[in-house]
Amino acid sequence: MEYRIALNFEDGVTRFIQCRDNETVLDAAYRQRINLPMDCSDGVCGTCKGQCERGEFDLGDEYLEEALSDEEAARGQVLTCQMVPASDCVVRIAADSTRCKTGIGEYAGTLAGVETLSDDSLELSIDLDEGAELGFLPGQYVNIDIPGENEYRAYSFSSAPGETRATFLIRNVPDGRMSGYLRERAAPGDRITLRGPLGSFYLRPVSRPILMLAGGTGLAPMLAMLAQLQAQGCEQPVHLIYGVNQDDHLVKCEALDAFTEALPDFAYTTVVVDETSDHPRKGYVTHHLAAEMLNDGDVDVYLCGPPPMVDAVLTHFESLGQQPAGFYYEKFTPKRVEEAA
C-alpha cells in the first residue's frame, strides 16, 4: 500500500511524494530527495513539525511532549519524523522549498486546442506527456511558458487533478503576450512547458457549507474544485456567485449546469456589471452577497478574481462585522484589470 502525500511549502511550491506502508513522511521525503527540516528524527526536537490539513495518519507515542504538545496534536500539527499516513494526505511544511533542496516541478505537453469562449476569454487545452504525472490540488496554478518567447504566465487549472488533459481559462487581453500567442500563432502539437504546481489557494477538507466567489476567469479554480467535490462526494451545500462585466463574458455555464445535476446541493448565481444588460442580477458580486450566505460565520469562502474584486469582498465582510470560519482567496493580476467585484 502506498499513499500520495502533498507537501506544501511556505513559498507556495507543492511537491507530491509516495509514502510506503508504515513509512514516515520524513523518510519518504528523504527517499525522494526532498530534505524536510530535521535535527534528530527521533521525535525529540520538534524541528520537523508541520500541519496536516487533510488525511488520516498515526503519530504513535514515541515522541516527547516538548516536541509536540497534546494541544498542538489536537490541532492537526504533526512531527513528520513520526507521522505514518493511513491515507492520502496534505501536509503544510514550515519552510521554503529551496531550504529543503527541492525545486518547482517541470512538465511538458502538447497544445491540444484553443477555444474562444467569448471576446473576453479563451480556453487552453494541453495534453500532458505520458508519464508526466502532474499532481496538483484543485485551486492551484502553474506557470506556462509562451512558446517562442522567454516569458511565462501563471494560470489556474480548470480541469480536475489526475486528468491527462489540463485546461485553463485565459483572459483575452488585447496586447497580452499569452493571449497574442493563442490568438495568432498557436497550433495543435505545439510543445508547451508547465512549471509548478504553486499556490496556497486550494480546496480544504469539507466540514461546513461552501461559498465560492469568482470574477471573470477566476472561475477556473472553482471548476477544478467542483470537479473534485463531484469525484469525492460532498454532503455540504455549495453556492457559487460568478460575476462578469458583460453578458457575453459569462462562460462555462453548461459545465456549471452539469455540476448542479451531479452535486445534490450545488447552486450558482451569475451577476453582470453592465447597467444596460437585461440580466436579472446586475452590479457587483458584493451587491448579491447577502449576510445569510455566511451562515452566521459557519462557512468556508473561496474567492478568486482581480485585485479590486478581492479588496471589495474583504471590505464587504468587514462591513458585515462577520468573518467566515474559513476564508481563502487569490488575486490574479493581468496587465489590464477591468473586472471589479
From TrEMBL:
Its cofactor is [2Fe-2S] cluster. Gene3D superfamilies: 3.10.20.30, Nucleotide-binding domain of ferredoxin-NADP reductase (FNR) module (3.40.50.80), Translation factors (2.40.30.10). CDD domains: BenDO_FAD_NAD, fer2. Residues 3-97 form the 2Fe-2S ferredoxin-type domain. This is Benzoate 1,2-dioxygenase electron transfer component BenC. It comes from Larsenimonas suaedae. It comes from the Bacteria. Residues 104-204 form the FAD-binding FR-type domain.
